[in-house]
Amino acid sequence: MPLTENFIKRISENTGINIDELTTSALLALLREKKRKAMMEKTEIMGRYNVNTLDELEDKIKKGEIAEHPAWEDLIVLENLEDLIARITEDMETIQQTS
């Protein structure tokens, strides 16, 4: 069920927070949680291979210190997670600058 404008207004009135501030806070909370989950997943994957950077993981794969499968797939996942974290960070900064 989608939230109606009246419901959002009611929350705003009940909390004493204006709608713009409420929207900003909600967006930032959502983005913080998404970023936290992405960072946790990144940490879990890097911990699996005992590396601190993507370059370190790639080097270990190339040197044969780590089996290529599934490490290459995990490297791709890590690259995507880093991109996601960067985009979320950028979005959060934009929201904070405009509010």
Q: Which descriptors apply to this entry?
A:
99 residues, elongated
Written description of the protein model:
The chain has helices spanning 5-15, 19-49, 54-62, 68-98. It is mostly helical and 99 residues long. 83% of the residues lie in helices and 0% in strands. It is built from 4 helices and no strands. The chain has one domain (5-98).
Describe what is shown at a glance:
The chain is mostly helical and 99 residues long.
Strand proportion: under 5%
Low-pLDDT ranges: none
Overall structural class, as computed from helix and strand content, comes to: mainly alpha
Can you summarize the main beta sheet?
A: none
What is the count of distinct domains? 1
Nearest-integer average pLDDT:
96
**Strand and helix order:** HHHH
Helix amount, in percent?
over 70%
